[in-house]
């Protein structure tokens, strides 16, 4: 069975044919490191990690290159730097903010079971590539200089004779619809309402670099040009897959396509555009004003990262997901069972019943259903399949120990009570035996009696 992926540009599920099977290339928009990542940010991390693992499974680990960028130049970063480190020069304060938040982001997504990308470029390390693309766009007549800004003209792109995509094709919008449906920056130096910034002058104290296109004042890049530059540097002008959240289709990804295709006179930037759906919390949009804004870091205090990962993958990546406490509890129980059954088993080849749904546009809900089907059969295939999906990173004992530690339950006290209960059962004092069982249950401990004795675990 072939891999088929839904392409946002063509709006259909297409067979995946890499440009070069020995060098499969994928780019995914990463974080802007100004604060802790929220659970919505975790969705593309987990979704495209599964795709990265699947591509490595199909083509070999050495033949897949995954690039996920870090945006480390942004107004929000500047604002936080000034707020948190008022006594430092702004550039030094910015470096502290990006180092701290970048380190925390890595710790959080590592806990989610996500593999590190092949390359993780930072925007500030690719200013030269941004300037070169901008110079190409100005020279080609697709961008212009105005009051120390450089702006891209979608009208100029759509007026080109041939060989370029239509601006608006990715988001399926006309220029008029974009003006009507988006917040358009009003500036006297803009030639058209949909023109967007490639480069702008820096304010005093802000990060700045020598400007392109003969501009004397130093400046800094606009947001969209960053990804065009980093994708070009690490994957080339034309590559296989570009991914991100559905909120990035317009304007960010639309503008990426425009910049790259016009700068290098290409019809395509990526052969497949993939976007994950939105996330809401307990049936409401996540927002700080509603008090339901949840960071990955906060959730990891109460749940192992694999629980968050499974909870995310139970919904197909293109569908909206409702993040609920009930679903988290169910995911935790499922993982408890998988760890008991398969964590200490030598992994076999991933089962076809699990891989085939993944080949159908990453149908993780069907893949998870297939995992349940392996539960009472081929345990080695279950273990291999779980590892393909990024689970079973610990031994069964480590998993159980983590639960016990997180619960705050005193293992020695539990063992003492179980011994007392065993003695009570031995003398047929069932009233005392039941009392101790209830006491353990109140502590959050579930016990199970068998012919080999009594075992216990933390109840979810």
From TrEMBL:
Record's GO cellular component terms: cytosol
Encoding gene, per UniProt annotation: cysS
Entry keyword Phosphoprotein: no
Cofactor: Zn(2+)
Domain tRNA synthetases class I catalytic: 16-331
Name of the protein in its database record: Cysteine--tRNA ligase
Ranges where the Cysteinyl-tRNA ligase anticodon binding domain occurs: 412-456
Cofactor: binding details: Binds 1 zinc ion per subunit.
Binding site for Zn(2+): 29, 227, 252, 256
Keywords tagged on the record: Aminoacyl-tRNA synthetase, ATP-binding, Cytoplasm, Ligase, Metal-binding, Nucleotide-binding, Protein biosynthesis, Zinc
Chain ranges for the short sequence motif 'KMSKS' region as given in the UniProt record: 285-289
